[in-house]
Design brief:
The chain is mostly helical. The protein has one domain. Helix content is 46%, strand content 9%. It has twelve helices and eight strands. It has a three-stranded parallel β-sheet, with no helix packed on it. The chain has a three-stranded mixed β-sheet with strand order 5-4-8. Strand 6 and strand 7 form a beta hairpin. Helix 1 crosses helix 7, helix 6 crosses helix 8 and helix 11 runs antiparallel to helix 12.
């Protein structure tokens, strides 16, 4: 067991709000400016304040960490300390999605229609050299929804300077551009939220999956323990029927097109199922029904 100096912060928005994870560190948010940027603004402020330089590894994890991951903050800390050295440690809040969708953009396009085109235009104007048509498979090794990651100071610097800061500077300097307006327009979600936080969330997995110079250690999932994370019958059935097949394709590093095509179908069907199912069942992570998913 290694004894790394970890700074895992939990953002606290409201007066009197207390930590959900006693082993995390309170990050009290002082300003509500750019609150609509959500986690994106919090990540940038954390970097600019150089908090990441104080720790061997640091990150910002939402109060819903245990609700989504089914493990405690201490268990995550123990996992990091028991693991080999890496640039970044990740834990994916939604492991069944590795079986439903080929990567974060296949999923994103179904649940946030138009997100891919909006993101590509933003990347292009920021001179970020990523072609979203060429994004590889996102398996359990690189899939990281909810920004549940902990990185070294060097990783923070690389990620911030390559992805976060160019986007921030464009949005601040061009607030009235069509591109800025498009990524700040509300998308479908359980509560009003712009495309931007969902873009940033997906750019993390995109970034780490395209860099050969980044070492990643992911919290281990396979189809067996991924089934524990299934939120509904659709997820359960896809994991049960396709888990072994998809895990083998990922393990062999050989992903046939027919599997990718099947996942395109699963993703489309899942979006329809999701909207219908959660129109009468509250989503377990929010307590809201899907009546709020409709764009106003």
């Amino acid at each position: 067991m290694k004894n790394r100096k970890l700074g895992i912060f939990e953002p606290l928005h409201a007066e009197g709000q207390t930590l959900c994870e006693k082993d995390f560190i309170a990050l009290r948010l002082k300003s509500n400016e750019h609150a609509h940027w959500r986690e994106f603004r919090i990540l940038l402020d954390f970097y600019y304040e150089k908090k990441h330089e104080t720790y061997d590894y640091s990150g910002i994890i939402s109060p819903k960490f245990t609700l989504k991951t089914l493990i405690s903050g201490k268990s995550f800390i123990d996992f990091i300390n028991k693991s080999d050295e890496a640039d970044v440690y990740i834990i994916n809040a939604f492991p069944p999605l590795a079986y439903i969708s080929y990567n974060v953009w296949m999923h994103g396009e179904a649940f946030h229609p138009g997100i891919t085109e909006r993101t590509q235009k933003l990347l292009d104007v920021c001179n970020i050299k990523i072609d979203l048509k060429c994004i590889p498979r996102h398996s359990h090794r690189t899939l990281c929804y909810s920004n549940f990651w902990i990185g070294t100071p060097n990783f923070w610097k690389l990620y911030a300077e390559t992805i976060l800061i160019p986007i921030e500077q464009y949005l601040l300097n061009n607030p009235e551009s069509d591109i800025s307006r498009s990524v700040l327009e509300d998308t479908t979600h359980t509560d009003p939220a712009p495309f931007l936080p969902f873009i940033i969330e997906r750019l993390f997995s995109t970034f780490i999956s395209m860099r050969n110079d980044i070492t990643i250690v992911a919290y281990p999932f396979d189809y067996k323990n991924s089934r524990d994370y299934c939120l509904n019958d659709f997820e359960t059935e896809v994991v049960k029927c396709m888990g072994k097949v998809i895990d083998k394709a990922d393990s062999d590093d050989s992903y046939p097109n027919i599997l990718k095509d099947s996942q395109y179908l699963y993703t489309k069907l899942y979006k329809n199922y999701f909207s219908e199912y959660y129109s009468i069942h509250p989503h377990p992570h929010t307590g809201y029904t899907a009546s709020l998913f409709k764009k106003k």
